[in-house]
Write a structure and sequence with these properties.
Blueprint (H helix, E strand, L loop, with lengths): L2 H4 L1 E2 L5 H7 L7 E3 L13 H13 L4 H16 L3 H10 L7 H10 L33 E6 L6 H17 L6 E6 L4 H13 L4 E3 L4 H8 L8 E3 L12 E2 L4 H14 L4 E6 L3 H16 L3 E7 L7 H10 L6 E5 L2 H13 L6 E4 L10 H4 L6 E4 L1 H4 L8 H7 L7 H23 L4 E3 L4 E4 L5 E4 L1 E6 L2 E4 L7
Parallel strand pairs: 3-4, 3-5, 5-6, 6-7, 8-9, 8-10, 10-11
Antiparallel strand pairs: 1-4, 2-13, 12-16, 13-14, 14-15, 16-17
Helix pairs in contact: 2-7, 3-4, 5-6, 7-17, 8-9, 10-11
Length: 470
């Protein structure tokens, strides 16, 4: 495909979308807090071992580097919050372990003692005008790489519209913006990035698909910094960043949610869906690293015949079950709820991925889901000051209703990140209160998102009182 022909300038967008987005005036709320200063102390043995591994990290590459990083994460995961925080604060500037320790703190929703040691991840805003008081400093020329045609086009539409809602709602300086069609392919994404760079854009947002992101990340020379809208299967290149609503992130968030609430013995109930399997794998790994015990793990598609017996057996194991983690959709969860109650597990702490809301919406049927906690976007659960309610926007825009609302919120936050990335990178406690949750940037170029937590009450979704905690 000729990318020059498929490039879409802002002036070519539909009048209806422009009119709708102009209704949503507002700007991001940015909060900054400073952590305590570092103090000299003796390091915990596990922390010291992680430090030894981190000192060798720069000399490694490929799988060896990935394995080394995972071992560091395992060692840090075994520390309690107070030990992790105090040991991280004791590290001197530029210590190679600090970025690993800081990421572990962010994953637990804990403050950083000082800014990350950014190195090549400075996100230098170059020749842009000075930042506003809240850190707002958008690019001069923004290229947006999205699959505007092909199999991913349907997913790209709400992302595009959420981004433009934020763009038009901002009353301060905005960049020139040009859309490039990646066609949903690796080759198309690489070509689109090359064209965007050649045409003088100083920042690139996208691409969206995992294969697209991986292909661009593998390029040897990324002369223009970028914020990819997915996690690739290779590390984020120095100077760029990635933002994602991945199943792995939800598995990690669920594990931290249960650990924070002192659940140590969990029953996992998953399904054969690829995203669910990825969430379960991440949950199992993180929960075990944090000292939890997976009592049993059931796939509803594989144990239909003896599910009741398996549930009874799990409930009766020595030590019992503290909590249940669901990685299933709403219809499956509704069928499971009576069986859990019959096994004596109905009153246990129960947490799920966001997919539990798929197939829900009738309170009389969803009553059996009451009490199950799940991560969701802040906009849908509580609303945010910069946008009308999700229901109101959904009534105007097809791309902001139903399951698409989450991607709309994701696109809105992508816009915020293009404008606040430098601020987030250089502040110890920098965060943006976005539509999908609280956004931060770790020391390796990954946007960390703390979601809002909701539950079912009377068969209706309801934000938890402490839903902004991990």
């Amino acid at each position: 495909m000729d990318l020059s022909a498929s490039r879409i300038a802002l002036k070519g967008l539909s009048a209806a979308l422009v009119a709708a987005t102009l209704l949503f005036a507002g700007c991001a709320t940015v909060r900054v807090s400073e952590g305590p200063g570092a103090a000299a102390k003796t390091l915990d043995p596990a922390f010291a071992s992680a430090r030894d591994l981190a000192r060798n990290d720069a000399t490694l590459s490929g799988q060896a580097k990935a394995d080394n990083a995972r071992q560091i994460e395992r060692l840090l995961a075994g520390l309690d919050d107070a030990t992790l925080a105090s040991n991280a604060a004791a590290l001197p500037p530029e210590d190679p372990l600090y970025n690993f320790a800081g990421r572990a703190l962010l994953n637990r929703g804990l403050p950083l003692p000082r800014p990350f040691d950014r190195g090549a991840w400075q996100f230098n805003a170059g020749n842009r005008p000075p930042a506003e008081r809240d850190g707002y400093r958008p690019p001069m020329k923004l290229a947006v790489l999205l699959p505007l045609s092909g199999s991913l086009a349907a997913a790209a539409a709400p992302v595009r519209d959420g981004l433009l809602t934020g763009y038009y709602g901002e009353t301060r300086r905005r960049p020139d913006i040009t859309f490039y069609d990646t066609t949903g392919t690796a080759a198309g994404a690489v070509a689109a990035y090359g064209k965007a760079a050649a045409e003088g854009n100083d920042f690139v947002l996208g691409p969206l698909g995992r294969d697209e992101v991986s292909a661009v990340f593998r390029e040897a020379n990324l002369g223009v910094p970028m914020l990819a809208l997915n996690r690739g299967n290779v590390a984020t290149p120095a100077g760029s960043a990635s933002f994602s609503l991945s199943p792995e992130d939800e598995g990690l968030a669920a594990a931290e949610y249960l650990i924070e609430r002192n659940a140590r013995r969990v029953l996992i109930i998953g399904s054969s869906d690829d995203g669910m399997r990825r969430a379960v794998a991440t949950f199992r790994q993180r929960f075990s690293e944090r000292g939890g015990n997976v009592v049993d793990s059931l796939d509803v598609a594989e144990v239909v015949g003896d599910l009741n017996a398996r549930l009874q057996a799990a409930a009766q194991k020595d030590g019992g079950v503290d909590a249940v983690f669901f990685a299933v959709k709403g219809a499956q969860a509704r069928a499971l709820a009576p069986q859990l109650a019959a096994a004596g597990l109905g009153g246990k702490l129960r947490v799920a991925t966001s997919q539990i809301v798929s197939g829900t919406g009738k309170p009389v049927d969803d009553l059996v889901l009451d009490g199950i906690a799940y991560p969701t976007d802040t906009w849908s659960a509580r609303g945010i000051a910069a946008l009308p309610s999700a229901a109101s926007v959904g009534s105007r825009l097809k791309t902001a209703r139903g399951p698409a609302a989450r991607l709309f919120a994701f696109g809105y936050d992508a816009w915020l990140l293009t404008a606040y990335l430098e601020h987030l990178a250089l502040s110890a406690g920098g965060e943006v209160q976005g539509a999908t949750g609280t956004l931060r940037v770790d020391g390796f170029g990954n946007v960390q998102r703390t979601p809002t937590w909701s539950t079912f009450s009377g068969g209706n979704p309801l934000p938890l009182a402490d839903g902004n905690r991990r």
